[in-house]
Amino acid sequence: MAAKRAKPRKAKKRAAKATRKARVTSAAVKAKKRSRHKLSVSHHNEADFRAGLRSHAVYRDLGIADATAGMAVAHVIRHVRPAEDDGAGEWHYHEVDFQMIYVLKGSITTEFEGTGAHTMRQGTCWLQPPGIVHVVRDYSEDCELLEIVMPADFATVTLTGPP
């Protein structure tokens, strides 16, 4: 009786091992389809901040778009004009697959369609779903954000008024 049980156990182990191997092989094939990424190191340099999407902010590119062949972009956004001086944005959305923002310094208040205004402070991280309509309402004088977006080349659509 013991010999009969041993065979099914060995067969189950072989089947489980084959399944694990198939999963690993499948993951490896998927990984090979993506372009190889290059090492990218970006040290802080004030001279690297440049004008960008919004007139009330400057952007420091972190080199991720080049390193990932356009799969993603990462930049530090520094708000440079007070919100009271028309520094806040307009209602808009981004045509992206992924957008994550992390508050490095200060605070920012953004209103999202359907959920209202949210004030994010230093250490806050949020994920903006693709296509969510939003507007920047306010930010502190020292506001700095880290933003990661996929793909690197994306469109921003500005609306003529509230949604």
Tell me about this structure.
- The protein has helices spanning 2-33, 64-67; strands at 49-51, 57-61, 73-79, 92-95, 98-105, 107-112, 116-121, 125-127, 134-139, 144-150, 155-158.
- By secondary structure, the protein is α+β, with helices and mostly antiparallel strands.
- The chain folds into 2 domains: 1-33; 46-158, Jelly Rolls, CATH 2.60.120.
- The protein has a 6-stranded antiparallel sheet with strand order 1-2-3-10-5-8. A 3-stranded antiparallel sheet has the order 7-6-9, with no helix packed on it.
- The longest helix is centred in the first third of the chain and has 32 residues, at 2-33.
What percent of residues adopt helix (DSSP H or I)?
Answer: 10-25%
> Which class best fits the helix and strand makeup?
alpha+beta
CATH topology of the largest domain: Jelly Rolls
**What is the string of helix and strand elements?**
HEEHEEEEEEEEE
What is the fourth-level CATH superfamily of the largest domain?
Jelly Rolls
Whole-number count of domains: 2
Mean pLDDT: 84
The number of helical runs is 2
The amount of beta strand, in percent, is 35-45%
Tell me the span between the first and last alpha carbons. Answer: 73 Å
Name of the CATH first level of the largest domain: Mainly Beta
The radius of gyration computed from the alpha-carbon positions, rounded to a whole number of angstroms, is 23 Å
The stretches of 5 or more residues where confidence is low (pLDDT under 50) are none
Q: How many individual β-strands?
A: 11
